[in-house]
Amino acid sequence: MGDIAKGVLGGAWTLLVGWILPTALNLSVFFFAVAPSLRTTRPIARLWPATQTGATLLLLATSVLLGLVLSALQNQLYRVLEGYLLWPAAVYERGCARRRRDKWNLQDRLTLMRLERRKRQHEGVLPVVAAADLARLRADPRLERAARGDRRRSAVQRALLRETLARYPIDDGQIAPTRLGNAIRRFEEYGYDRFRLDTQVLWNELTGTAPEQVRRQADLARTNADFFVALMSGHAAVAVAALSALGSAHADASLLLITALALGCLIPLWYRSCVVAVDEWAAAVRALANVGRKPLAESLGLALPADLEAERRMWALVTQLARLPFAERRAALDPYRSRGTPGG
């Protein structure tokens, strides 16, 4: 049934599920828990419908309107949660340093588990370099407590640790101050790290030429993250409204406080769910870069080189041509044009 609905709604599915539905959920909480304390105030009393049908229509209309507004503001909402917007410089730097340490700790923990497993498999014998690394990691006080727990982990639990590490960008210089920022940044850098294809610069060209199924997967995969971003944003707004309503004449203080507290407690849960939901989005963008490179090259009149290093040089030149003003050195792209000799 869900697939049929997706086919009928087409591109509207991402808007409906990603932004309008969570907005409707938040407005329902507002209408039930906050609005009764505000209905005696003059502006709310004048606008509030007199019938249940009118209230339902108001909920639907407001959900659609605010959902569209949130969709239009999605870049700003993501940037706040990623740590790029409205973050003081000092807080930003501390956040990046903390996430960098978390990444290094995860790497060291996984390396320690791998070396200990190798030592067991080889009856206590390791190469000199590996043995030195194992001794260094065992002596590291940062890892002592975590290492004791890691030794009791099952294979599945260790795989989950590797999954957590995979949510960080490869380049430490790309580390963001939040978990969501890093989860997104790791797939934003994927095309450039592997092929020197900057998917951020060439996103429209890439999605415009990629196979339909791959492009649609990327759109639908983002919907889950959009849902949680809209849900968190609405929770914060309703919680603030609930606290503000405490000053009204007929406020139900207990209900308002419970509502604000419950929404505040749910925000971290939805944030973590959003970080996990980005995994599917990352996989879809990775597929887009892997599969969409060839049709993108053909649409640009280029022949994809058989040699990977030559391909990396080609995409670096294409990115520079799209991002920087034209200069004569861009003529280095000529050998990759389809009328030239692929590979340069």
Question: How does this model look, in words?
Answer:
By secondary structure, the protein is an all-alpha fold. It is 74% helix and 0% strand. The chain has 3 domains: 11-84 and 193-298, no CATH class; 89-175, no CATH class; 300-336, no CATH class. The chain has helices at 2-9, 12-38, 42-47, 52-72, 74-82, 89-121, 128-139, 141-150, 155-165, 179-188, 190-195, 203-209, 212-244, 253-299, 308-323. α5 (74-82) crosses α13, α6 packs antiparallel against α9 (155-165) and α13 packs antiparallel against α14. Residues 340-344 have low confidence and may be disordered.
Q: Give the N-to-C terminal Cα separation.
A: 51 Å
Q: Provide the structure class.
A: mainly alpha
The number of strands is 0
Number of helical regions: 15
Major β-sheet annotation: none
Strand content: under 5%
Mean pLDDT: 89
Count of individual domains? 3
Shape: flat
* Secondary structure: helix percent: over 70%
What ranges have pLDDT less than 50 throughout 5 or more consecutive residues?
340-344
State Rg. 26 Å
Order of helices and strands: HHHHHHHHHHHHHHH
